[in-house]
Amino acid sequence: MDAPILPKYSWKREQTSIPSMLLSMHSYLTARSKECYS
């Protein structure tokens, strides 16, 4: 099980944009789930 890819520059840039971060996280997890269950 590989670690999720979370670029540090992206975190620092999007630090004030919590909804954006959560949305990208959600889409990442959704993609991972589809890979696992499809």
Q: Profile the largest sheet.
A: none
Q: Based on helices, strands and strand pairing, what is the structural class?
A: mainly alpha
Determine Rg (CA atoms, Å). Answer: 12 Å
Q: How far apart are the termini?
A: 17 Å
Helix content range: 55-70%
Provide a count of the helices.
2
Percent range for β-strand residues: under 5%
Beta strands, count: 0
Which parts are unreliable, with pLDDT below 50 for 5 consecutive residues or more? none
Order of helix and strand elements from N to C terminus: HH
Shape: elongated
> How confident overall, as mean pLDDT?
72
Outline:
This protein is an all-alpha fold and 38 residues long. The protein has helices at residues 8-13, 18-37.
Written account of the structure:
This protein has 38 residues and is mainly alpha-helical. It has 2 helices and no strands. The chain has helices at residues 8-13, 18-37. The model has no long low-confidence stretch (mean pLDDT 72).
Search tags:
38 residues; mainly alpha; 2 helices
Reconstruct the topology from this structure.
Layout: H1 8-13, H2 18-37
